[in-house]
């Protein structure tokens, strides 16, 4: 199989030509290098991405569908949404995605997809960037609101010049403006 050059527009790139994958499929192991992890961390708003690896199996199917199954593992450091201290976490999960090289009206009508299933994503051409698939999965796995252990959000108390009712209402500022006019 010919090696394709990485996409310079992506932080982590490992493109494959899906037409060159054998009928039984092919296994890939992707491990992000330090500079790739740094760029992915910046893209995903992480403080640090110390490891990022994936073991993938790519299988071609009927009608131009390509299945990607695998396991992703990463060690991340994020900023706590309450205290702003670093929060370290390890994420690991198996996933499955499907892609299609061609989307025709008859294919969409003939495909047997249950409502709970995700339809295949459309490929533009014959190239699938496996590293981008891994980064997208990582983005779905990381905690959107990380909290340090024991971190508790305490809302600010209302100031003395505001009535308790005004502190509760989201329109309190508008009410003040109306009084002043």
* Terminal-residue CA separation: 74 Å
Low-confidence stretches: none
Computed Rg: 24 Å
Topology order in helix (H) and strand (E) letters: EEHEEEHEEHHH
Based on secondary structure, the structural category is: alpha+beta
Main beta-sheet strand count, sense and barrel state: 5 strands, mixed
**How many beta strands in the DSSP annotation?**
7
Side-by-side strand order of the widest sheet: 2-3-4-5-6
Count the DSSP helices: 5
Shape category? elongated
Strand content: 25-35%
* Overall pLDDT score: 85
**Count of folded domains:** 1
- Name the helicity range: 10-25%
Overview of this protein structure:
It is a single chain. This protein is 23% helix and 31% strand. With 181 residues, it is an alpha+beta fold. The strands form 2 sheets. Strands 2-3-4-5-6 form a 5-stranded mixed sheet, covered by helices on one side. It has a two-stranded antiparallel sheet with strand order 1-7. The model has no long low-confidence stretch (mean pLDDT 85).
